[in-house]
Design a protein that fits this description.
With about 290 residues, this protein is an alpha+beta fold. The chain contains twelve helices and seven strands.
Amino acid sequence: MEDLIRSIYWERASHPSTLGILLVEKGQFALTPYDVIQTVLLEIVERGEKEMDIVHFSDGRRQIGLMTIDKETIRDWLFFGKNKKIINWIYSGKILFERNDFFHHLIKELQDFPFNDRKIRIGLEFCKLISSYLDGKRLYQKKNHLDAFNHVIRALHHLARLSIIEKGMHPELTVWDQMKQIDPEIFKLYEEFIRSEEPLEKRLELLFLASEYMIRSKTELGAAHIADILKQKAYWSVQELFEHPELKIYSIDLLILLEYLLDREYIELIVDEKKGKGDVSLALYRLKKEVF
C-alpha cells in the first residue's frame, strides 16, 4: 500500500504545476458518503484542465483516490464554505509534498481569515439563513410542520455558521461542538428545539419567535457586504447587482435578501420613469444612508 501511494505522489509531484499533495486517511474522518475509499491523495495544482478530477487506484486490497483540484477552486471551497470537509482535510492531512510551502501558507491564510473574505462569507450565510427561515415559516403557516422542521434546522445551522465566522473562525463539520464554546445561547436554542418533548407545532412557534429576534440582531452584520457594494453608486438595477462579481455567489437567494432588506427598510426602491419600456418603469435599489 505504501509503495502504491509513493509511486502515485512521486509521479504527480514531478509535474511543475503541482503545488502540493496531502494524504488523508479514512481513520481520521469520513472521506466519502460510503467510505469505499480508504485513502485520499489531495493534489492542488496551479491550473487544471478541469476544476476537479478524481481517479481511483487499487492494489487488490485497498482503494486510493487521487483528487486533483486547481488552486482557485480549493480557495473557493475553503473561504466560501462550498465544501466543508475540505477544511478538516487541510488542517489534519499529512503533507507529502508542497512547493514553496504551499500548504503552510494556505493554512496561515485560513487561520488569519482575511476581513473581506469573512464579510462575504457572513453575507452568504445570512442570505441562506433568511431563505431557510422564510421557507420554514411559510410551511408552518400552511400546517406543513415536518417540512417546516427541516427548513428551521437548516436556518439554525446557517445562524450557527454565521456566529462562528463572526468570531473569525471557519465552521467545521461538527459545527455544534464549536457552538458550545462560541455561542451558548444559540446552542441552547438548537438543543432545546430538537430535544424538547413539546408537540412539534408548539416547538416551531417558540423557535420562530426566538429566531426573529436573533435574525434582527444580526441584520446589520449580515447585510454589511451588500451594503458596501450598494455604497459604490447611487442606484442599482437588480440585473447590475446579479452581475456584480462579489454578488454572483449569492445566486437566486440575492432576491430574497433584497426583499428582506426592503421590508426592514434598510434599502429602498426607486422608480426610474426615464428607463424601462412603454408604461413600465425600471425599479432601482439604493441604500438608506441613515441606516448604514
